[in-house]
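User: Structure please.
Assistant: Input sequence and predicted structure:
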Amino acid sequence: MRPNNPPFYIFTGGPGVGKSTTLSALEKRGYTVFFEAARSLIRQANLGLHEAHPQ
């Protein structure tokens, strides 16, 4: 019996090659996507919302 888990894919590449653009396009078409955690943490830290970068 095959488990009922959909396949998953990992997008890698250097800055500016289209990873985020591709994920956004897939998300608009109804796919579940997960953006890299580091981007969110850096954004929060720059806004002073994360303890790694206190104000």
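The two ends are 54 Å apart (CA to CA).
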